[in-house]
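Ticket opened by: R.M.
Priority: normal
Category: complex prediction / small molecule

The reporter submitted a protein together with pyridoxal-5'-phosphate and asked that the result be attached to this ticket for the collaborator who will pick it up next week. Submitted input follows.
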Amino acid sequence: MSITSQIKYLHESLPSEVRLVAVSKFHPIEALREAYDAGQRIFGESRPQEMTTKQAALPADIEWHMIGHLQTNKVKMIAPYVALIHSVDSERLVAEIDRCAARVGRVIDILFEVHLAAEESKSGWNEAELRVFIDSGALVHYPNVRLRGLMTIGTLTDDIELNKSEFCALRDLYTELRPRFGEAFDTLSMGMTSDYREAIECGSNMVRIGSMIFGERVY
Ligand SMILES: *Cc1c(COP(=O)(O)O)cnc(C)c1O
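Result attached by the on-call engineer:
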């Protein structure tokens, strides 16, 4: 299957309210160019340096999404152009994004990454931590970030029912929080190649798909 045919298939088959992030990490610029020429405009990357190199080489109307764990000392590199940071997992990172956004005169859109499984090893906020942070009202101290919604990575498992219960739990939290953040809180990022259909059934409106489009990653 070519990149072009996969992009066309996804654009035709995804429900209209679901946005597609083409996860292009570790793939060469020519692969992204092919997806772009097939009509794809949102790309997801997991490393700031790699994303910045690709951003400089490709058309300006691409939306660049940071989906991987982000170290605070790398925020500065992507602050001038990043469209959405999916992987915001601490107040420290919120504070640094706010600081870097202010310096380049932008408001940067973010999602909070949440992990719902009991595994404490996973990155992201657990639900209780997130509630404490939100209830503290601390976000008002960061006017250069705008919270657009929530993101999760499903537990790596063959048990699709487990993934589904996680996705539906995140949807419930998202639905509960929406009235507190208003219109701009509109993004629920969940679902990858192996589980995007289930994520959409549970209300995802942004899927992050890599290997289905670009093939297996070469590490
Ligand atoms: C790599 C990655 C994806 C894409 O995964 P595929 O299984 O290749 O579709 C999605 N989300 C995150 C956070 C990733 O790191």
